[in-house]
Amino acid sequence: MSESNNTQISFVLNGQPVKAHVQTHHSVLDVLRNTFELYGARESCGQGLCGCCTVIVDGKSVSGCLALAADLDGTQVETVEGLDASGQLDPVQQAFIDCGAFQCGFCTSGFLLMSKQLLASNPNPTESEIKHYLAGNLCRCAAYPEIIQAVRLAADRINAGSQA
């Protein structure tokens, strides 16, 4: 590994400061999976079209398969593994379980993060707004009705101040 292709980055990952040596061509997904052993985000299409590799960087969703790891330097990164950092499931996670909003689970991490981001910016979205916001996430098992139901349930619980 030549020094010119290698850089050290520091960022906050799920609330914890971390450092990593990355090659300039490594993707965010490469580093999360291979360096930090966080396997929730997955590569499916490799083109940023399916949402399976979604992570949140500085409050914005990012396709981890396309974004360069070197660009994480100085950022705040949240992965699906960080949703239950307090030891309790996030309301969005619990709603997905309660509504059966996943089947194989491959796409679930992207849907969870996008749903959490949606509810942070719009605490009471309509069905149409949910569909529009999640349009970049694809579910091969076609659990879309349950996913929409789960987002509505999570919104209701968050708005009521309930975590269960």
From TrEMBL:
GO terms for molecular function: 2 iron, 2 sulfur cluster binding; metal ion binding; oxidoreductase activity. It comes from Neopusillimonas maritima. Keywords: 2Fe-2S, Iron, Iron-sulfur, Metal-binding, Oxidoreductase. InterPro entries: 2Fe-2S-bd (IPR002888), 2Fe-2S-bd_dom_sf (IPR036884), 2Fe-2S_ferredoxin-like_sf (IPR036010), 2Fe-2S_ferredoxin-type (IPR001041), Beta-grasp_dom_sf (IPR012675), Diverse_Oxidoreductases (IPR051452). Residues 7-83 form the 2Fe-2S ferredoxin-type domain. This is Ferredoxin. The keyword Cell cycle does not apply. It holds the Pfam family Fer2. Coiled coil: none annotated. The keyword ATP-binding does not apply.
